[in-house]
Design a protein that fits this description.
By secondary structure, the chain is mostly helical. The chain has two domains: 6-68, Orthogonal Bundle (Arc Repressor Mutant, subunit A), CATH 1.10.10; 72-112. 54% of the residues lie in helices and 10% in strands. The protein is built from six helices and two strands. The chain has helices at residues 6-17, 24-31, 39-52, 72-85, 90-99, 103-112, and strands at 55-60, 63-68. Strands 1-2 form a two-stranded antiparallel sheet. Helix 1 crosses helix 3 (39-52). The longest helix is centred in the middle third of the chain and has 14 residues, at 39-52. It is elongated, with a radius of gyration of 19 Å.
Length: 125
């Protein structure tokens, strides 16, 4: 299960929040309010994220433009599947997970499994 470090996660948040590919300078600027990072540090993190498969890049003149290789939701789903794979009893882990869900989350899951054809109701707890 691939996980992101703190700085990698911050950089990925920038990529996930942008519709268009971004440069290392764009990421550095986006993180400037939260962190005091050197441009070269951001370049290194983006290179590492690309090698790990979290980001893709394309050449734009002399610069690289980066984008997330998968959505935030796909990443979280992969983490959840990895955690599930670590248990000795997947059924028990799924039961505990299901019991911790809100009614709204359970309804979303039922619809995703094709068990519930009702439209989503915002008023569910």
């Amino acid at each position: 299960m691939k996980q992101l470090g703190d700085l990698e996660r911050a950089v990925m948040e920038v990529l996930w929040n942008r519709a268009e590919p971004v440069t290392a300078r764009d990421v550095t600027r986006a993180l400037a309010g939260d962190r005091d990072l050197a441009y070269t540090t951001v370049m290194t993190v983006l290179d590492r994220l690309t090698r790990k498969g979290f980001a893709t890049r394309e050449r734009d003149g002399r610069a690289w433009r980066y984008r997330a290789a998968a959505s935030r939701e796909e990443y979280v789903a992969e983490l959840m599947l990895g955690a599930l794979a670590m248990t000795g009893d997947r059924d028990a882990a799924l039961v505990h997970f299901a019991q911790s869900m809100t009614g709204r989350e359970a309804a979303v899951l039922r619809r995703a499994l094709g068990l519930d054809k009702e439209p989503h109701k915002e008023s569910e707890p």
